[in-house]
Amino acid sequence: MAALAWLLIPLVAAIGAGLWGSWANRARNVRNDGPELTGYARFREAMEKPRPGA
């Protein structure tokens, strides 16, 4: 009977991990990529400018 108890511990842990994983991976509000794309465009423009003194 004690061996069954030891086998239940990993089973309960696996079920708990599965529940936590599904909760952590749930669909959230989709974030808009606008600010990141705007920042990247500014970075690209800055890199394309000629360097002074070069």
What would you say about this model in short?
The protein is mainly α and 54 residues long. Helix content is 70%, strand content 0%.
Features:
single chain, 54 residues, mainly alpha
Distance between the termini: 80 Å
Domain count, please report it: 1
Largest sheet, described in full? none
Proportion in β-strands = under 5%
Uncertain residue segments: none
> How much helix, percentage-wise, in residues?
over 70%
| Number of helices, where a helix is a run of at least 4 consecutive DSSP H or I residues | 2
- Backbone CA Rg: 26 Å
Arithmetic mean of pLDDT: 88
Instruction: Tell me, briefly, the overall form.
Output: rod-shaped
Q: Structural class of the helices, strands and pairings?
A: mainly alpha
